[in-house]
Automatic annotation (TrEMBL):
Its EC number(s): 1.1.1.49
A Pfam family this chain is assigned to: G6PD_N
GO BP annotations, alphabetical order: glucose metabolic process; pentose-phosphate shunt, oxidative branch
Gene Ontology molecular function terms on file: glucose-6-phosphate dehydrogenase activity; NADP binding
Chain residues that bind substrate: H180, K184, E218, D237, K342
InterPro entries reported in the protein's UniProt record: G6P_DH, G6P_DH_AS, G6P_DH_C, G6P_DH_NAD-bd, NAD(P)-bd_dom_sf
UniProt organism field: [Actinobacillus] rossii
Reaction catalyzed: D-glucose 6-phosphate + NADP(+) = 6-phospho-D-glucono-1,5-lactone + NADPH + H(+)
Name of the gene this protein is made from: zwf
Protein name, per record: Glucose-6-phosphate 1-dehydrogenase
């Protein structure tokens, strides 16, 4: 089904995200026929640029990132426009009025407009107010939706203040807080795996699950984003949003139906059940780290403190590991170990469900563990590990695996990227995969004591680039007789 005719206004159009993610996503949606022919994109930023220069830049990015070419590329680019606006000056938004009138007429959009805030966060509260000053928020003439990029606030106080600011001009049903992890096919698949099979759900609780591991590892360092990252750190950059969303997908109750309200009710409910962490809990259950220079594959890589834009005495964490629990009937007492970091040995995001062992070890002292590995990226798929008889004499059990890879599906080539899926959903008015205000607050409520603890105690351990984080993180999990899984770049070969 195609989207309704609409105009997409991207604020921050001269920035990185626009040419790296947003325009490629829109191009791909156009290419597969999911965008109405009557769409237009109006890029907005301070920089002076003509429509033609903007088109040229986007064309170059599409050729580079998407190998775009030919008629499709040219047709797509003809829908792109640009308007320079001083985005912090309400008066200057008057320039948008004739541009938008024109685009709505030309493309018969009936006034439908999607605003995308891809600007520095300091403008997230300002732009809605400036739009409202010119009546560009009202839905008398077509729908008006606002996509807000992360970070949604810097802590609980600023997140609440931002919410109040935006809600003065846009209603909750118009606001789409984007968390690109929710756009990932395999994060959504967690729900399908859990709720469309009778097999897993009965086991999905403290009765059968021993513990859960969630890993968001990245091999890259902070690259050119040191300036941004230093004010953020792993906790705000990955944990507060992406990983807590993944945790919610693993732990939430089944929604009655899949729609924006019932899904997001369940997400918010489980996030509210996260056990609040006291200072004493954090002393034992939190490890922060920062990577130091090392040689990886014969190449010397910088430590975090040597990265561009990072102050030489920075105490920002590039790694964090946390043991947390969920206080509800389903999960009471089950530890969730969550870790994320930059400059780890490989890029991998996965969830590992470790099932309890048999009550009595009949075959060997070291019976293989039963676990379900849900690989979110790369090599998207699911691997079930269990024990079978080792061929030969005796009764020795060995771990084998049963694997499913997304790439084996014939339709795998049609996997949408996260931004494609989320932009499409926003244009369709489906907010299921966007964070609702109560869930965002629940995440901040849980994270705030961790931020405060870090400010007060500040202990950040060093780890060498290319390793699995500080050894203290191993101790954290070893205390309960466990070890972190060391995922490799690939899932095991099929048995
Ligand atoms: C972004 C963070 O939100 O997510 C980055 O700002 C991080 O620091 C990225 O690298 C990870 O996303 P993905 O999709 O590559 O796992």
């Amino acid at each position: 089904m195609q989207t309704e005719n609409n105009c997409i206004v991207i604020f921050g159009a001269s920035g990185d995200l626009t040419h790296r993610k947003l325009i490629p996503a829109l191009y791909n949606l156009y290419k597969i026929g999911r965008l109405s022919e009557h769409f237009s994109v109006l890029g907005v930023a301070r920089t002076d640029m003509t429509d033609d220069i903007f088109r040229e830049k986007m064309r170059a990015a599409l050729i580079e990132h998407e190998k775009a070419e030919g008629e499709t590329l040219e047709n797509f680019c003809s829908h792109l426009y640009y308007q320079s606006v001083n985005t912090s000056d309400a008066a200057d938004y008057v320039k948008l009025l004739p541009r938008l009138d024109d685009l709505h007429d030309t493309y018969q959009t009936a006034g439908n407009t999607l605003y995308y805030l891809s600007t520095p966060p300091s403008l997230y509260g300002v732009i809605p107010e400036c739009l409202a000053a010119h009546g560009l928020n009202t839905e008398e003439y077509g729908w008006k939706r606002l996509i807000v990029e992360k970070p949604f606030g810097y802590d609980i106080k600023t997140a609440k203040a931002l919410d109040v600011q935006i809600h003065r001009f846009f209603e909750e049903h118009q606001i789409y807080r984007i968390d690109h992890y929710l756009g990932k096919e395999t994060v959504q698949n967690l729900l399908v795996l859990r709720f469309s099979n009778g097999l897993f759900e009965p086991l999905w609780s403290r009765n059968f699950i021993d513990y859960v591991e969630i890993t968001g590892a990245e091999a890259l360092g902070v690259e050119q984003r040191g300036g941004y990252y230093d004010g953020s750190g792993a906790m705000r950059d990955m944990f507060q949003n992406h990983l807590l969303q993944v945790l919610a997908m693993v732990a939430m109750e089944p929604p009655a139906i899949i729609n924006a309200d019932s899904m997001r009710d369940e997400v918010a409910k489980v996030l509210h059940c996260l056990h609040p962490l006291s200072e004493e809990d954090l002393q034992h259950n939190l490890v922060l780290g920062q990577y130091i220079a090392a040689e990886i594959d014969g190449k010397q890589v910088n430590g975090y403190l040597q990265e561009t834009g990072v102050p030489a005495d920075s105490n920002t964490e590039t790694y964090m590991a946390l043991r947390c629990e969920i206080d509800n009937w389903r999960w009471a007492g089950v530890p969730f170990y969550v870790r994320t970091g930059k400059r780890l040995p490989t890029r991998v995001t996965e969830v590992v469900i470790h099932f309890k062992t048999t009550p009595h070890p009949v075959f060997s002292q070291n019976a293989p563990e039963n676990k379900l590995i849900i690989r979110i990226q790369p090599d998207e798929g699911i691997s079930m590990r269990f024990g079978l008889k080792k061929p030969g004499a005796g009764f020795e059990a060995k771990e084998v695996s049963m694997d499913f890879r997304y790439s084996d599906l014939s339709s795998a080539a049609n996997l949408m990227t996260a931004y494609e899926r989320l932009l499409l959903d926003a244009m369709k008015g489906d907010a299921t995969l966007f964070s609702r205000t109560d869930a965002v607050h629940a995440c901040w409520k849980f994270v705030q004591p961790i931020l405060d603890y870090k400010t007060a105690n500040g202990r950040v351990y060093e780890y060498e680039a290319g390793t699995w984080g500080p050894t203290e993180a191993d101790k954290l999990i070893a205390r309960e007789g466990r070890v972190w899984r060391k995922p490799s770049g690939m899932m095991k070969k099929k048995v």
